[in-house]
Amino acid sequence: MLCCAALLLAxxxxxxxxxxxxxxxxxxxxxxxxxxxxxxLEPIESQQQWAAWLRYRxxxxxxxxxxQADQQRWIVAAGFKPTAGYQLNFSPAAEADLVQITVSRxxxxxxxxxxxxxxxxxxxxxxxxxxxxLVVTQPDGSQRRFRLTEP
Length: 151
Known about the structure:
Layout: E1 7-11, E2 25-31, E3 40-44, H1 47-56, E4 71-77, E5 86-92, E6 99-105, E7 121-127, E8 131-137, E9 143-147
Antiparallel strand pairs: 1-8, 2-7, 3-4, 4-7, 5-6, 8-9
């Protein structure tokens, strides 16, 4: 069974010029247990805040590198899910002004899932000033819109 959600990042009316082949949105990491009860967008404003976020979640492996000066780092969480096996999958779109993230559940019809509450999230870096709106669509079709402001 596949549950989908899309995160759409709409471009500002006058986007800044982007270098050819420059990635405007990059997935930094993904986690199965982030602790967010509902759909959430959280800016990470400093290396210290990023390190604290990782420590709070018990992350002991090497942390993904900190962003470049012209990027914004965001935590995008799907909220609590009723079973294990959910994840957010990042796939850059062909259009420079669109990023899509889908919430999916691994396995097929006969898959067995642990009955635990999960709270998946992804960490993304976005080119600063490139996007102004983020829309999260849950598997049931409900949406949550976030205006992106620079942290």
